[in-house]
Design the sequence.
């Protein structure tokens, strides 16, 4: 059983910052890519940022220059540093991780429960 637990969400004023974290635990053999997705009311889920096991990163155009994704492989944790937050960043942010639990098997796709980020004055 694999579990992803996010933390760090909350209410922040425009221009403020938040740091999200997501820790994976359970029967983990190897973690490939990790990432953050978000879904705002009335909108489809969108990719925010991903980071590979080798540290390569990809960002949505809307967050480039403001958000930074990173990971601590020793702790099976991925972070999302969010700066210069805008009201349009308001959404439920979910952690995603591609995890292999048993050697020689396919990777599985795992999701956290989501953490609410609200940017408002």
Sequence:
């Amino acid at each position: 059983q694999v579990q992803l637990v996010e933390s760090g969400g909350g209410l922040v004023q425009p221009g403020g910052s938040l740091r999200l974290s997501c820790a994976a635990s359970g029967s983990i053999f190897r973690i490939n890519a990790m990432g953050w997705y978000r879904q705002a009311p009335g909108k489809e889920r969108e990719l925010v940022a991903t980071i590979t096991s080798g540290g390569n990163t990809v960002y949505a155009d809307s967050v480039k220059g403001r958000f930074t994704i990173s990971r601590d492989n020793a702790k099976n944790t991925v972070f999302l540093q969010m700066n210069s937050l805008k009201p349009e960043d308001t959404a439920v942010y979910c952690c995603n991780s591609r995890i292999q639990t048993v050697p020689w098997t396919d990777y599985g796709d795992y999701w956290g429960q989501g953490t609410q980020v609200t940017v408002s004055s």
Observations:
- Residues 21 and 56 are 18 Å apart (CA to CA).
- The chain has no helices and eleven strands.
- The two ends are 40 Å apart (CA to CA).
